[in-house]
Fold Sodium:solute symporter.
Amino acid sequence: MDVAIVVAYLVAMIAFGFWGKRRARTEADFLVAGRRLGPLLYAGTMSALVLGGASTIGGVGLGYEYGLSGMWLVVAIGAGVLLLSLLFAGRVQRLRVYTVSQMLELRYGPGASVLSGVVMFGYTLMLTVTSTIAYATIFAALLDLPRVPSIVIGGLVVVVYSALGGMWSITLTDFVQFLIQTVGIFLILLPVVLTQAGGFTEVAPEALSLTTIGGETIVTYFVIYTFGLLIGQDIWQRVFTARSPGVARWGGAAAGVYCLLYGVAGALVGMGASVLVPGLAERDDAFTAVVDATMPPVLAGLVLAAALAAVMSTASGALIANATVLGQDILQRLRGRAPAGGEEDHVRGNRLLIIALGAVVIVISCLLQDVVAALTIAYDILVGGLLVPILGGLLWRRATIVGAVAAMAVGTVATLATMAVVGDIYANQPIYVGLGTGLVAFVAGSLASRPTADGVLAEWDRRSSGAPAQEPVA
């Protein structure tokens, strides 16, 4: 029965892809759902996007090992969504661009988008790969499949519905996935596990502490994931789908609060699992182990579908972000012009990019082993190289293209060099060095160069205020 539930879920995802295909008539429809999402759809899809396998399977695993303090990974993600939504999302939504790099070009003028596009492409590619690999855990528990077939099945489903309808398909599937996550985690798994575990009476005292996981680890989560969520293409592209700045601000804030609650719920489930299924060799096995130990078939199918929903929503969001960066920021720049043809041709081109990148992602996912290390490097480069010029451009009017490019180059090189010297990619020093040196280069380069041209700033001000403009930015 639980297998039948998950199979029905996968078939439904593909059906939603065909529904989205009918609505994806223009490039804006395909890439940003026509910029028409209301608060309910927006909040639900933003929540589904940021809460993936690391937040669900990984969050329960952290709760299994560290108790309540295992919540900090997902809490850091929720904090990033809250900060982006309340401080920047309204302004970002008004720009009506497709990518972070286009925002940089709009703010600084020509020359800022190529390097940032390459960095963002690497980040979104690795995010898609790590999300795709997470299918293996779920399908192995459900169907007793080996790693490679599990990755191929899950990856193909995501590629099919993403390529069919673009962001419209992803929006509908993400919202359904959000509902499944909510029911599966909050209404089924959490109460069942806590009840069968006897509440908190059987857990060790340190499991109730908020700092068992360690202060340095908590800081690392906030530095990497909170800052990363402020500037990630996958997150910004979802902001671009909001129909108004108010929807982007308050719908995003609601998603951030949901993420905070989700983090606490995952940690509590992990605590209960430590009582019900003690002695697991790998903490990330806690999710599937506690489901097997506590759930009858129908409920087990719903909860495993919730975990699958979490993984697929992140994978599809990262995949379309990866294709958008490749098409808008890299290939278009290499051609020196926008692709010829009408809207149907643009949609077809984006669809082919998703299919091609999806195939690449599936192959890399089958070959790659240390995915956490790869994702950590990607996040460090993203934050070390792009956080300063992006936030600096939003907050400091004197910032210039010279300062922005200097910050990208210096921050990225300093992050990688420090990582090599320290010899530990999980250490905090590389990201601090990257941010610090990038900030110095940004300020020095901006003050030493001519101010941004008045015409560039005037267009930036006009777009930031929500004045109409041709779409998209080339």
The two ends are 51 Å apart (CA to CA).
